[in-house]
Amino acid sequence: MAALSNVRWLTRAVLAARNSGAWRGLGTSTAHAASQSQAQDVRVEGAFPVTMLPGDGVGPELMHAVKEVFKAAAVPVEFKEHHLSEVQNMASEEKLEQVLSSMKENKVAIIGKIYTPMEYKGELASYDMQLRRKLDLFANVVHVKSLPGYKTRHNNLDLVIIREQTEGEYSSLEHESAKGVIECLKIVTRTKSQRIAKFAFDYATKKGRSKVTAVHKANIMKLGDGLFLQCCEEVAELYPKIKFETMIIDNCCMQLVQNPYQFDVLVMPNLYGNIIDNLAAGLVGGAGVVPGESYSAEYAVFETGARHPFAQAVGRNIANPTAMLLSATNMLRHLNLEYHSSMIADAVKKVIKAGKVRTSDMGGYATCHDFTEAVIAALS
C-alpha cells in the first residue's frame, strides 16, 4: 500500500499546485480564500466533486462498494450524495431540483437505477425520465465486452450500443381518447435523430471503430422510424471511412443471439435501445457485469448498462458490483484520472480472471462484500 500512499501524496501536490481559477471557475480572491480555508482544503483533498445518486434496489450496496474501492485506491474524488426514490418516499420536486442542481454544478454523476412504479399516480414521466430530460442526456452508451476468464455462450465480444433516450416511445404522451382506447404517442424529430446519429459516427471515429448499424422498424412505422433511418443515412454520407448498414429491430435481436460478432457500433431509438441493452448484456454475463454511461452536451452520467434494480437481492449481500465498478472507472477516465481508472479496472478484471471470488450470478458463492474486498486486495 506504500505505492498508493505515494500516489495520494503526488495527486494532492499536483492539485494544490493548480491555479484556483483554472478548474471549473473555482477562482477566489486571496482574502475570500483565506476566510474559507477549510472549504478550500476539502476541495484539494476531495479533488473532483461528483454527484452520487444510489437509487433503489441494490444501488446503495453497489455505491458502497465503489466508495470502499475508491478509498483504498486513494482516488481524488469527493462524492456529493443525494437520494431520490419513488418507492422509498424520497421523491419530490424539491429533491429532484436538489439533484439537478448538484449535477449541473459538478457536471459528472454516478447513479443507481431509480425504480419506476407501474402505478399511474397522475404523472406519466418518472423521476428518472425527468432527470434525463432536464439534463438533456440524449445519448446512452453501453459497451458490451467479454471479460477475460469468464466464459459465456459467446466469448471475445466487443460491441457498442448507442441509444437516443429523450424521445421515441418514452415521450410520456398518453391519453384515453375514448373509454377503453388509449393513445400513446411516439415522438421522432429530425433534430434529435441527426444528433444521435452524429454522436454514433463521432464515437466510432474517435474509438477506431469500423462500422455503424442503424436499427429501426421503418418497414412498419414508415414515417417515424423512416425519419430516424433517413437521418442516419444522411449523416453516414459525411463519414465515408465508416461502413454503414441498417437492420430491422426484430432481425437484429435474432442476429445478436446467433452471430453477435458481426456488430460493431449500433445506433437506435429509445425503446429498441432499452431492449437491446439488456439482450446484449445477457450475452456476456448479465446485468451485473456491463457498464453504461449517458451524455449531454455538458453532463456525463455513469451507471450500469442494464438498468435493473435487482430488488429481490436487497439486504442479502449478493449483488455483483462489477458493472458499477467498471462504470466508475469509465467516470475516472472521463475526469482524466487515467492512472486510477486503469488501476481499478485492472483489479476488477484480475479478480474475475482468477475465478476464485465470484458472485452467484457468475456461478460462484461470494458476497458483494467478498468481491469488493478481493478487488481492494488486487489493487496493491
Task: Characterise this structure.
It is a single chain. With 380 residues, the protein is of the alpha/beta class. The chain folds into two domains: 46-137 and 293-379, Isopropylmalate Dehydrogenase; 153-284, Isopropylmalate Dehydrogenase. It has 13 helices and twelve strands. A ten-stranded mixed beta sheet has the order 2-1-3-12-11-4-5-10-8-9, sandwiched between helices. The protein has a two-stranded antiparallel ribbon with strand order 6-7. Helix 8 (224-236) links the parallel strand 8 and strand 9. Helix 4 (59-72) packs parallel to helix 13, helix 9 packs parallel to helix 10 (270-284) and helix 12 (338-354) packs across helix 13. The longest helix has 17 residues, at 190-206.
What is the element layout, followed by pairings?
Elements: H1 2-17, H2 30-35, H3 37-46, E1 48-53, H4 59-72, E2 77-81, H5 93-106, E3 108-111, H6 127-134, E4 139-145, E5 158-164, E6 174-178, E7 181-184, H7 190-206, E8 211-216, H8 224-236, E9 243-248, H9 249-258, E10 265-268, H10 270-284, E11 291-295, E12 300-304, H11 322-334, H12 338-354, H13 368-379
Parallel strand pairs: 1-2, 1-3, 3-12, 5-10, 8-9, 8-10
Antiparallel strand pairs: 4-5, 4-11, 6-7, 11-12
GO molecular function, one term: NAD binding
Subcellular location: Mitochondrion
GO biological process, one term: tricarboxylic acid cycle
